[in-house]
Amino acid sequence: MAKTYWYFMTVALLVLIPLIAVLLVKKLGLLEIRPDEQIAYKVFEGQKRLLHSFKAKTDRLGSPPPAMLLFHGGAWQYGSGKKLYPQCRFFAENGLTCFVVQYRLGSRGVVDVPGAVEDASDALAYLRANASQLNIDADRIVAGGGSSGGQLAAALGVAIHKKAGKPMPVATRRPAALILYNPMLDLSPGMPDHDLVKDDWQEISPYHHVDGSVPPTLILLGTEDVELPVASAESFCRMIIARGGRCELALYQGQQHGFFQYRENNREYFDKTNARIMTFLESIWE
């Protein structure tokens, strides 16, 4: 009887100890992705605005490495840069120094998109001004983002520089390329999210500011995305190409808004979009 008891106790412990260890790791966040450094790129209303930095782990794309500047989504009023930590870790492992940008957010349906664009511009300008100290190539800074964060990246690419009719500080040069995950491109009446930006939409809608200097652009989009109709992305690309630029649209059948995010139980589209982005970047730098 005693032997049976100890046998079952041993088996129970062998099962429970690994399970408890896994739960503790998750609870304590021991496996969470963390940036190498947090850098203040500006101070606004007494609060530091931060860049969450992931340093390039290889020189396969050259030295100093190119940089990736990423903006999270959340309708300009919520969300967290942590959502893009997995992407940043991937890019760092593949030769880019990656920065997730903290920018001003609204709340309760009140947003300040021109202010967020100003933050985005200041973040880009900071990287350029401090490229040597940050050990990055100032001529190869890529801007990217998802959803509303994609709008901010696209705003840098089309050089939106107006705020309430007054000049807004902008980087003197645009990003070297744009990586846009289901971005909010057209903010005109009748389009998704127009109501949030109805007072400023003409100044901040990337679709309405395309010119002949937009950098090489890659748009990654699910075909079932109700926030960004495929037709809008196709039209945005056509305008860039018609003006002599380069724009590629990668469509993912049956996928919805946010399909590119990292998921522990399903990495398929996280991996596919990352691979597509690296192919695109390598093609413009070969």
Q: Which class do the helix and strand fractions yield?
A: alpha/beta
Assign the CATH superfamily of the largest domain.
Answer: Alpha/Beta hydrolase fold, catalytic domain
Give the oligomeric state: single chain
Give the helices and strands as they follow along the chain.
HEEEHEHHEHEEEHEHEH
CATH class of the largest domain: Alpha Beta
Low-confidence stretches: 21-30, 162-171
Strand content of the residues, in percent? 15-25%
Radius of gyration: 21 Å
The average pLDDT value, as a whole number, equals 88
If classified by CATH, what would the architecture of the largest domain be?
Answer: 3-Layer(aba) Sandwich
CATH topology heading of the largest domain: Rossmann fold
Give the distance, in angstroms, between the N- and C-terminal Cα atoms. 73 Å
How does the major sheet shape up? 8 strands, mixed
Number of strands: 10
Strand order of the largest sheet: 1-2-4-3-5-8-9-10
- The count of helical stretches stands at 8
Describe this structure in words.
The protein is an alpha/beta fold. The protein has helices at about 1-30, 85-95, 115-130, 130-135, 150-155, 200-205, 230-240, 270-285, and strands at about 35-45, 45-55, 65-70, 95-100, 140-145, 160-165, 165, 175-180, 215-220, 245-250. Helix 3 packs across helix 5. The protein has two domains: about 1-30; about 35-285, Alpha/Beta hydrolase fold, catalytic domain (Rossmann fold). The protein contains eight helices and ten strands. Residues about 20-30 and about 160-170 have low confidence and may be disordered. An eight-stranded mixed β-sheet has the order 1-2-4-3-5-8-9-10, with helices on both faces.
